[in-house]
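User: Run a structure prediction on this.
Assistant: Running it now.
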Amino acid sequence: MNLDVSLSFSYGKRRVLDGVEFSAKKGELLAIIGPNGAGKSTLLKCMVGILEGEGKVNLNGKDLMVMKPGERAKLITYVPQSSLPEFAFTIEEFVEMGTYATKGSVEDALKRVGLWERRKEPITFLSGGEYQLVLIARALAQGSDVILLDEPTSHLDVNHALLVMDLLNELKEEKIIVAVLHDLNLALSYADRLLILHRGKKVWEGKPRELEPAVLEEVYGIKANLVEVSGRRLLIAGLSKV
């Protein structure tokens, strides 16, 4: 199962994405990183059809961009940056609200994230990390082949951030997983491949172990040192070079 993407997007005359091309496949976690304003969230929204981009989003040769929203939703799901809802739906009701979710898939999805036993609790009782797991469960209940996640660990404590990343690491064996990540060390530790955006363009793509500090220094304007700890690469960042 392969996803092939080539997209551009503009807000009026301002080019936000400029010919960003990449591929993703089942069995690997692709992390998209880059500074604020690089176009990361815009890229995901164009892929899922929230924004109308120019180019292609092909899944196993099927052009998702020409599909109707309902058809596309069966194949690709978007998990936005989380903000707790104001209404006290139960956890189960909230997951059922996902497009095409069924009773069976809701149960399976909530069991997958460890929240089935709490399904009757109001969603407003959840912590930020627990709510993020519910958002992932709703995406799983939709049953699509591709899940796009926009900063799934944003504002989470270390425990919940690692829990979410471990879950994504499991899901990549079943689905194509593409995640925008703000935390560079989580990206370096968990991603099988990295895609780095800067000013709307792809500036680097490859495996974390292939990444050179000079790339991060150029993109983020920092002094970067990459070290290996317990088989994983970690970034030690210094003061701005400016």
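The domain at 2-240 is CATH 3.40.50.300 (Rossmann fold).
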